[in-house]
Amino acid sequence: MSLLEVKNAAFAYPAFSETFSDVSFTVRKGQVFTILGPNGAGKSTLLGCLAGLNKLSAGQILLGGRDIGAMSRRDIARLQGFVPQTLNSVYAYSVAEYVVMGRAPYISSLRRPTKEDYAAAFEAIETMGVGHLAARSFSELSGGERQQVAIARILVQNPQLILLDEPTSALDFGNQIKVVKMVRELSQKGYSVIMTTHNPDHAVMLDDTIGILDGGGHMRVGTAAEILTEECLSAVYHTEVKVSYVEKVNRNACLAVF
């Protein structure tokens, strides 16, 4: 059984035409599903639907074999973690406090986090390489630092499926590669990951399943060899794209003609 199954999904905001329609795909344990597409194609909206935050106008999403629309937030959080693009904190929580909140699905409303919960939080913080920020206020962090800390919070949640909405958008080049490597390592440990990105090369590096949303809200699903072609990328992004094999790094690279 697939961990996540999306069947003929469609979404439309009130009084607007559909953002996307007839989207179908499955995600199994340990799979990385990378979602590409231009601005406004509906990538973030689709991820919100997968997280149970947006309600489909048609179709169905099954998480662990259950209709996500009938699941409680706690039940969803025990199977799935979501890192949105925009990360704000109203209160001046420290990084350690912010990350330990990822244990919430396993802590009753009357119980405080235990030493074990904090130990798991600090381990996740170190895994993301932001241990030096543990005592800092989350609200004082840069956009890139917040993204790294938010991923640590998801790791401490220990879900089976991790949703990342453009996790590299606020990061410098080195940290972008670090996140891509981390996604691959998570999949090797058995986690399933769905990640949106604007960079086709990230999908090449991850070398798994890709879904590409076009400007009309339709998704094409396949492997990198099937999806990341010059014809497909040029049509979706409305610019001439060349795909070339780079021997020094032993993979293809997607290059815009300038």
TrEMBL record:
Keyword terms, alphabetized: ATP-binding, Nucleotide-binding, Transport
A Pfam entry, by short name: ABC_tran
Top-level taxonomic group: Bacteria
Gene Ontology MF terms in the entry: ATP binding; ATP hydrolysis activity
Occurrences of domain ABC transporter (ranges): 4-240
Protein name: Iron complex transport system ATP-binding protein
Organism: Sporobacter termitidis DSM 10068
